[in-house]
Amino acid sequence: MSSESLPSIGDMMAASVPMVRTLNLEFTETTTERAVVRMADQPDFHNHVGGPHAGAMFTLAESASGAIVMTAFGDQLGRAVPLAVGAEIGYKKLAMGAVTATAELGRPISEVIAELDAGGRPEFPVKVEITRDKDGAVTGEMTIVWTLRPNQ
């Protein structure tokens, strides 16, 4: 099968995670270095001040983290399941309009796989920055801790 016929990470996420479809998230970049996911301004997901609801921004950031995890460790799915085990988010500035989440792995891929190879259940952070599209201001920062749980 050629790589042109393989679904993108964004397509796979939309197919397997209903909230990705609900929020109409757009995966604009997915590499092992970073994942970038955009959420358009949608009045159905506004909060009491007219910006994106905190829950929608959490889902946006968590989806970006999932995209980079799948890109970095998708070749390990035959022997381990990626799972988010914890998350912390800080809302820094008022988010208005469209917002974008950019995720980066907090540990080298090779180090995580080496721990899995040694029989461990590696954990690793993914750091995410949420910015307003209109001016690039950072509106939120999130860290999601993921694990690769070995299959039984």
UniProtKB/TrEMBL annotation:
<dbReference type="InterPro" id="IPR029069">
    <property type="entry name" value="HotDog_dom_sf"/>
</dbReference>
<dbReference type="InterPro" id="IPR027961">
    <property type="entry name" value="DUF4442"/>
</dbReference>
<protein>
    <recommendedName>
        <fullName>DUF4442 domain-containing protein</fullName>
    </recommendedName>
</protein>
<dbReference type="Pfam" id="PF14539">
    <property type="entry name" value="DUF4442"/>
</dbReference>
